[in-house]
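Quick one:
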Amino acid sequence: MTSVQVDKQHDGTDGAVGGGEGYQRGLGARQIQMIAIGGAIGTGLFLGAGKAIHKAGPSLILAYAIAGLVIFFIMRALGELLMYRPVSGSFSEYAREFVGPFAGFVTGWTYWLFWVVTGITEVTAAATYMTYWWDIPQWISALVFTVILYGANLISVKLFGELEFWFSMVKVTAIIGMILICVGVLTVGFSDAGDTATVAHLWNQGGFFPNGVGSTLMTLQIVMFAFLAVELVGVTAGESKDPKTVLPKAINTVPWRIAVFYVGALIMILSVVPWTEFQPGVSPFVAAFEKMGLGAGAAIVNFVVLTAALSSCNSGMYSTGRMLRDLSLNGQGPKVFTKLTKSGIPLLGTTFSAALMLVGVWINYVAPGKAFEYVVSFATISGMWAWIMILVCQIRYRAKANRGELPQSSFKAPGAPYTSWFALLFIGMVIVMMGIDEGARVSLYCAPVWGLLLGVAYLVLKSRNPEGAAFAKRS
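Output:
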């Protein structure tokens, strides 16, 4: 990349029509807010919380609250960087600038892989949910969903935003509805659970830490997995109509989102239904509806988790094309991925990523019973790498800004850099917990293999394109 391109990226333009980096700024405040809200609500909450409740009991509420605080620190660190320089390929761009070219290379390709893997995982989950209503082969549903979402992402970024708005609206409405129903059960006493529902369930069934503090710590990996994709709002920076105004507002909604959708929802559910009645693999929302005698609850929750899965896959289609283009613009990926359509869509990058997501269709065809577990193990560790880079870059950016080497951000992270260091230590603890947990350890086995592949690829890049490999040193 030339020095002229670098300068234009820093001032948010590149001479293309529509917005920074050639993209069209088609995402408005309403859509960005919902993308930010929906990013924190997914299958990790609707399904994964069942296993976590079984392990930790009511103390899972505290785990979500503490992890939520860490997520807020991460998002404010990201917000500070975004207001310094709002770019679509934010994670790899910042890693390239503040850590080094190899860090940008690893971050961009790892985040790209994260969304490809997540897309495969979620389209697999969506196909599984469809069997609740229709007895059709999973691979057919997986293929149909992949094609539909791919087509929608090729039309315009505004359509992507609209899909995410309505996907998120379904999730938000479902959780708020569940909370209100639980409040009614606790205060008025209606439904089959009315006679036994009580807030005392939070401490009467073996205490708040029924299985010990250690068991609660072991659920942190599940908790953090539930928050993956909350950083997606950073990828939308290059296509937001007014990023300087919209993005800070979206990021500042993180505390109340977590307080309502995670902490609040769990307090209500565990007050209506004792934690001992929840089982791994069963949605706590479904179990709560059944306990209350609301027969339609299972169908409602199935529709909601289907929506959550499609939302995540839709986000994967969106972000992978942008990450590939960012890598290519900086000489760290094939140049063919730099091209945009007239409507500002990275066609070839999105198509290539969608083609890889079709691997999920094949997995659903050859092994429908184990498809989900085949592809889910890598998601957590690769997603947390993006968080680590955000925090490291914010620490280094703040130090440079304080020395007067860079302009100050208009949206400073409160308490930084101490809050960023705390978040890094917390993520480190979660990784240690993953190493202790035999079921999650496979994620850590995958990481060095992926790192080795990237190391070899980077050496090849340096030999063929020294300029791309050294870009961060000049910028």
